[in-house]
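Progress against Task 2.4 (sequence-to-structure conversion) is shown through the following example record, which the project officer requested during the mid-term review.
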Amino acid sequence: MDLLQLLQTTPAAFISLCGLLGLMVGSFLNVVIHRLPRMMEQEWREQCATLDADSSPAPQAPSGPRYNLVIPRSACPTCGHQIRALENVPILSYLALRGRCAQCKARISLRYPVVEAICGALSTFVAWHFGFGAAALTALVLVWALIALTFIDFDTHLLPDSITQPLLWFGLLVNINGTFASLNSAVIGAVAGYLTLWSVYWLFKLTTGKEGMGFGDFKLLAAIGAWLGWQVLPLTILLSSLVGAVVGITLILFAGHGRQVPIPFGPYLAGGGLIALFWGRALTQAYLGVAL
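Structure tokens generated for the chain above:
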């Protein structure tokens, strides 16, 4: 019996493999969450320097060392100690090191094992929920992207195009054969997802003169629509708005969060998208009476 047959005929093996894969991907997502915004900032600075060089005869400053998702190797931000392979085992290394750098004993953020645990748990649930097949394998990609977008938006209030745009197009490709929704529903979902929040944005801006959300939110909802179809968009928006309102009010009342300080909406869209991925059809049929 080869590996594919084993995974297909033994659900426990497939679920376990996806869980382990999720832990490893979660470790990589920590790198993406930390580095991608800095890569974007570096790119913006280089673009600004290029524009300055075009308008000024002054020599252009040399670019800095390479910095991407692979280079340089991960290191302790306090002492510069490069993380060895045995120090980078998801969750276990954090526990073995007691949450401290192996060299200087500086504290390691709890964020790292939390992201790994969330990614591992959700990957396990995806495998259990969908079973062996294309739905599970492609849903893993959606879940991993939403995790990365959630934490990046929490940290920077940015939803990078380098994640949201490929996610949208890949969702349309996934649904060519109707994996999660018909292709017609997916195309309409992508358009409707973008235009819905685009309309809210401009209505709010014309009414108040302020920007209520970023363009990344439009693209994220468009991606969710491309993956799951237009029918689940009302549920996704409702869930994300409710959770966002509750969290926002809680932060203002109990955490001293200023009313004028923006709260990222991307994490709540991602949460609504995850719920829609697993239970969207059932919830829509039960509560909204939409025939899918």
